[in-house]
Amino acid sequence: MGNFKRVNSILITQPATLEGMAPYNQLGEKWGIIVDFRRFIRVDGLSLNEFRKLNVNPLDFNGIIFTSKVAVDHFFRLVNEMKIDMSPETKYYCVGEATYRYLQKYILIRKRKMFVGEKTAMDLTPFIDKFKKEKFLFPCSNVHQGTLLPYMRSKGIDVTISEIYLSVHDDLSDLKEVFYDMICFFAPTGVQALFKNFPDFKQNETRIAVFGSTTAQEALSAGLRIDVEAPTQGITSMTAAIEEYLKVSNL
């Protein structure tokens, strides 16, 4: 973080209706800054018929890997529509405490075998290695990156990718004449959506905040300067990272 010019407005590239957005409004009120929400990516889940064409049966797998709440939602939606019950012996591997706790919407966590990677998917490798002879299912979007899958395949672990939802860039033409001091990205596709809509975008004094290593990689590849990043040592949320920045820039 090097550019500490005052921040008066922040754009969160997610819808205000998404669970967990309230802390951003609280941050805006506390610091007297404008916080707007605008969805950059639309998520379209596969229909049951589309999913069946993949020839994937969730009951065939010992372990399910979840890297996001969205993946959890669409997986259990399809399981519901298929009218099947997941085995109590199924193991669930979750990236992040938030994803782990979110599973409570669908299953009784205390009665299941759960494993949590603190920050990234690679934090799950010690648990996956322990059960490497089992079959794993990785429900995800059409845009999946990272090093976990290559790692598992290099170890000869049986893992199946199932793209159960699609990430589609939204039309952002309404933002053409709008300027924000800070833009917050939560996925590589959000960065891609920015440049798809505004190929001539120049960062200038705009601060860029990113959540997750793959989002950071995408931002850097696009030529952006990263001013705020989470998670880092001692800072696990985007709001906490932004507040640390504001303590310098807005005082």
For the record, the CATH architecture of the domain at 45-167 stands as 3-Layer(aba) Sandwich
- Span between N and C termini? 16 Å
- Overall CATH class of the domain at 45-167: Alpha Beta
> What best-fitting shape do the alpha-carbon axes yield?
globular
Strand proportion, as a percent range, falls in 15-25%
The neighbouring-strand order within the major sheet is 3-8-7-4-5-6
* Alpha-beta content class: alpha/beta
- Using only C-alpha atoms, the radius of gyration works out to 19 Å
Q: Fraction of residues in helices?
A: 25-40%
Low-pLDDT segments: none
CATH fold description of the domain at 45-167: Rossmann fold
Strand and helix order: EHEEHEHEHEHEHEEHEHEH
Structure overview:
The protein is of the alpha/beta class and 251 residues long. The chain has a domain at 45-167: Rossmann fold (3-Layer(aba) Sandwich), CATH 3.40.50. The protein is built from nine helices and eleven strands. The strands form two sheets. Strands 3-8-7-4-5-6 form a six-stranded mixed sheet. Strands 2-1-9-10-11 form a five-stranded parallel sheet, with helices on both faces. Strand 10 (207-211), helix 8 (213-221) and strand 11 form a beta-alpha-beta unit. The mean pLDDT is 92.
